[in-house]
Amino acid sequence: MSAAASSSKTGYLSHELYFWHDSGLETYEPSFEPRGSQESPESKRRFHSLVQVTSLADTLIAVKPREASDEEILRFHTEEYLKRVKDVSDGPIGGRIGHELHISHGGYRIANLSLGGVLAAVEAAFAGTISNAYCLVRPPGHHADRDGGHGFCVFSNVSLAAAHAIAKLGAKRVAVVDWDVHHGNGTEQHFWGSDQVLFVSLHQDKLYPLNTGGVESVGEGAGRGFNLNIPLPPGSGFGAYEYAFQQVVLPALHAHRPDIILVSSGFDCSFLDPLGRMMLTSDCFRSMTRMLKGAAEELCGGKLVMAHEGGSARASAARARCERTSPRAVKTWGCQRGDDACWASWSESCTSYVTTPPVVSYAPLQAATARCTCPTAASRCWRSCLATRQA
Ligand SMILES: [Zn+2]
Fold it and tell me: Which residues have their alpha-adjacent CB atom under 5 A from ion ligand 1?
């Protein structure tokens, strides 16, 4: 273990209000019975409960969320959108503020605190209070556009935290890695023309939003080459993700040399999640976290802040987070191998998922890993292009 790793301090942030966010009913045409939203507090509350009952919380540094100011929200979102969120929130019962997006009366305060949680964790990382942190915030943020939220997301939590690091905390460069199963379209929009923020999104190809997240979307102007989409085929297991990390994510991070790494951490790429068709297990999330933690220790003094995005499977979400962060918690649950054995009562039958091979022949993945995105070296491969940019 490196000196940086041995001295790293891990923060944890959540708040009771995050579980009170009401994402409303999903309604379709009249002949279909409305149902509760897929985005519910259940999986997040189970995660939080697990952190508490295993005493993992005793080993973590509590980070307190704060309110976000209008100025901080308006670094990306429009005044019209902010006013709309506040107006709906002030109404007697709340209502819809975008496609698949509902808030209840008072919902603005919770969305504000969700954003403010990620801002507070980033501030703590730059202050040295913590090295890295997990922010169990809700509602999520990576689908929120400049002028409207959708896909369960109200404010663009992670991208606004990146902007805050640059505007107020002295960061010159920030990297955002988004492994939620859906494309991080809002983060992409925010930094489309910026060379200060490297954005890498790994997602299920053509899932949501349907027509975004292609490998050809690389940014514009100064931002060209700093927006990297890695669309993966449905059914991808850790082999595909590991291949993408080795071929794109880690080389890009080393080329960009960020002052902090932020992660849009969606657990909906779990093989149990109803909204995705990927095959990741808790062991896979742990491995991806280790790779990013190692990169943060090499590149930016260990500064790594993860913020919760999607994840609807009650079992996998809680387990994945527990095992990812805590060997001690794993032991508490009786696991000897430090992997999925603690829920092996039924996951033994799922071994085939764990061993899903890399899907490296998939054309979009091939394109993402082979394509040069640098305007000054259009004919070069990914690696030589990155080396050129670093030089
Ligand atoms: Zn998602």
Answer: 180, 182, 266, 268, 310
